[in-house]
Amino acid sequence: MQKGRSKGVETRGTTLAFGSFGLKSMDTKWIAARQIEAARRAIIRYLKKGGKLWIRIFPDKPVTSKGTEVPMGGGKGSVSHYVFPVKPGRIIFELAGVDEETAKEAFKKASAKLPIKTKFVKRQ
To answer: Is the CATH number 2.60.120.10 carried by domain 21-61+78-122?
Structure first.
């Protein structure tokens, strides 16, 4: 998979499909699998046992890197981690079964773990 260019706004995954509240991206960035996991843990820890969470993105783009002191040549490096290229407008997480104030606070904690600006959205 090539690096590609992440320009423009998202056309898919821009509306709430499962939950009542969502966390929407406002920037273009690669989100690594460990960042998604950290945000998920922050939400789950805040919610304790209530509510249902949907993760609307999946990191399926491999990122390769070579070792620090490896000389030029010798081919492509091995896969170091996986990312999801996110564009503005993409719904990242969805929540249901909690009140709006709880969802807002949970998403606030999750957005601190992500490298992008996010926005809280709710179903009309």
So the answer is: no
Closest CA to 93 of 8, 38, 36, 51: 36
Closest to 105 (Cα-Cα) out of 42, 57, 55, 50: 42
- Sign of CA pseudo-dihedral 13, 45, 20, 112: negative
The whole-angstrom separation of Cα 25 and Cα 34 is: 17
Is 59 in contact with 84 (CB distance < 8 Å)? Answer: yes
pLDDT of residue 84: 97
If you search the block for the tokens 């320009």, which residue do you land on? 7
Q: Is 54 helix (H, G, I), strand (E, B) or coil?
A: strand
- pLDDT tens, residue by residue, 35-63: 999 999 999 999 998 899 999 999 999 99
